[in-house]
């Protein structure tokens, strides 16, 4: 190895060492950010009735046109995610039996609470389509556009008769932290790393998701219902809002 190669190697080793020291410094001096969703001292349980957390994200009890009930956090979720994760989970049922399962996952100091949504869906038997971006108009406390991602999902279901049918549904999600909203997992990861390096603050990101099963031939109608549901639900528990927007209005003649 000649002198030039030795110099390059020495610089590389020095940079690696400096980076490691900086990361370690940030880890020991980091502080947790403020969540972008409400957190209340209301316990949440697993399917066996055992305590899953002393705090929870208060997803709204009342949404126009729906009755709701708290759902237990699945045991597999509790076993997979870090112990400092905070949850919220409810199921909403309309008079026509249309159902939406709504869940919140709020990370603590362990950032592995949140991962790519596709992994969980595939792990539970759902086949996913490519993601699409969309905006949901939220009107309180002011009008703004909430970015969301949607995935058409499908899975095979066996009926009591023994016949197997393909079931369609939608999975809609977004992420929120203090003063930040995105529907892009990679964007969230970049912002989290950027904020930690710049300020030493580990933002407490929350991952919100809705899932529903569609009646045959009513895929888009079901998606419109999810958007309307989100518009009613978000102002009741989400603290972070997007910039105010003005919607186009028809001019009076």
Write the layout of secondary structure elements.
Elements: H1 3-29, E1 31-32, E2 44-45, E3 51-53, E4 66-70, H2 75-80, E5 86-94, E6 99-106, H3 117-123, E7 127-128, E8 132-138, E9 144-158, E10 164-177, E11 180-182, H4 185-199, E12 201-202, E13 206-213, H5 219-237
Parallel strand pairs: 1-12
Antiparallel strand pairs: 2-3, 4-5, 5-6, 6-13, 7-9, 8-9, 9-10, 10-11, 10-13
Task: Give your account of this protein's structure.
The chain has 253 residues and is α+β, with helices and mostly antiparallel strands. The chain folds into 2 domains: 1-32; 34-237, no CATH class. It contains 5 helices and 13 strands. It has helices at residues 3-29, 75-80, 117-123, 185-199, 219-237; strands at 31-32, 44-45, 51-53, 66-70, 86-94, 99-106, 127-128, 132-138, 144-158, 164-177, 180-182, 201-202, 206-213. The strands form 3 sheets. Strands 4, 5, 6, 7, 8, 9, 10, 11 and 13 form a 9-stranded antiparallel beta sheet that branches. Strands 1-12 form a two-stranded parallel ribbon. Strands 2-3 form a two-stranded antiparallel ribbon. It is globular.
Strand content: 25-35%
Per DSSP E runs of 2 or more residues, the count of β-strands stands at: 13
Give the proportion of residues in helices.
Answer: 25-40%
How many helices in DSSP terms? Answer: 5
The termini sit apart by: 82 Å
Tally of domains: 2
**What are the low-pLDDT stretches, counting only 5+ consecutive residues below 50?**
17-22
């Amino acid at each position: 190895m000649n002198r030039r190669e030795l110099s390059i190697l020495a610089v590389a080793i020095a940079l690696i060492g400096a980076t490691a020291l900086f990361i370690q410094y940030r880890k020991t001096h980091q502080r947790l950010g403020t969540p972008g969703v409400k957190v209340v001292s209301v316990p949440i349980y697993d399917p066996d009735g055992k305590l899953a957390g002393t705090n929870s994200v208060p997803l709204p009890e009342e949404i126009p046109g729906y009755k709701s009930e708290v759902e237990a956090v699945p045991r597999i979720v509790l076993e997979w995610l870090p112990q400092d994760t905070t949850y919220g989970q409810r199921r909403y049922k309309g008079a026509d039996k249309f159902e939406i399962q709504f869940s919140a996952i709020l990370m603590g100091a362990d950032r592995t609470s949140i991962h790519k949504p596709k992994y969980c869906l595939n792990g539970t038997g759902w086949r996913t389509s490519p993601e699409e971006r969309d905006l949901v108009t939220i009107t309180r406390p002011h009008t703004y556009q909430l970015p969301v991602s949607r995935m058409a999902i499908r899975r095979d279901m066996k009926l009591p008769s023994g016949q197997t049918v393909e079931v369609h549904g939608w999975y809609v999600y977004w992420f929120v932290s203090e003063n930040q909203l995105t529907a892009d997992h990679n964007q969230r990861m970049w912002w989290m790393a950027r904020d930690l390096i710049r300020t030493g603050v580990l933002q407490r990101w929350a991952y919100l998701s809705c899932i529903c099963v569609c009646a045959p031939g009513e895929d888009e109608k079901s998606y419109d219902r999810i958007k309307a549901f989100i518009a009613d639900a978000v102002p009741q528990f989400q603290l972070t809002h997007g910039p105010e927007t003005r919607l186009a209005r028809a001019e009076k003649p």
